[in-house]
Amino acid sequence: MKNTFLWLLLIVAAIVSCTSGDVIGSRQLSPEQERLEKINMIDSTSLCEILHLDSIEGYELLNSLTADAWMLIDDSTGCIISEKNADEPRPMASITKMMTCLLALENGQMGDTIEITQDVYIAKDSRVKLGDKYTMRNLIDEMMLVSDNDAAYALAKHLGGDTLRFYDMMNEKAAYLGMTNTHFANPNGVPNLNNYSTASDLVRLSRYSMRDSLFAAIVGTTEKDIHLLDGRHMPCRNTNALLTTYEGCLGIKTGFTRQAGNCLASAATRNGVTLYLVLLNSRSMSSRFKESAILLDYGFNVMKAYPR
Questions:
Q1: What is the pTM of this model?
Q2: Number of neighbours of residue 106 by Cβ within 10 angstroms
Q3: Whole-number pLDDT of residue 124
């Protein structure tokens, strides 16, 4: 009887130990760790092993694309659907602003007042003017919707104390996210040989950033009146045409410089499938949207054929 009782105690103890371990294990995996694990989920082989990708509708159009580099990935599986020169470092233009936006949302107070001062006013490709005052949230919207370069500089100075410290913050975050072929040297993507990334690294940044609900809301906004603190307002329309022309588009960010060409980071969802795409150095402003739509269409066709 005593032996039976001891065995029962041991069994109960083992069950409690296992259960406790599971609870502890689940607690150890924080939401942030789950977020990082998700963007680390990248599979370059499964689709090729299961499907004849060249037989999927839309494949025949890929050779006609003018973009120099891209990566298209299914978010839930991490499967790479299509890529070209995806690990080749190159200029990223205003896609840089995704990192500036992310850091502002993570480190800033949305109600802070930010003034456009002389040291952040370069008066190029910008709508903010010297002396304008915004809340941080409105300045972030201004930066992301119309790709305002001076708005990015003002946010960088406010968040970092000075812009050089902010660049350190950008590179520290890039390292944290595993963006191993990326270096930031400004907050907005204006030409700089030390400001570069890859399509694969920018897909990683896109997937991470879009898991911030406010980031996703900002880049998914088609148009908005941006209010200044003096009572004026500035109508802004998002530079990302796919938000109104592509079914299921969620964002994310356009970019252009002569060095980088026409760039676009995109996310779209249809029938429970979410795809991420970064396309770099397309021939023209219109072709970056057309070519992104071709790739996304192909991606949804591939995932429709993918057994789940």
A1: 0.90
A2: 14
A3: 67
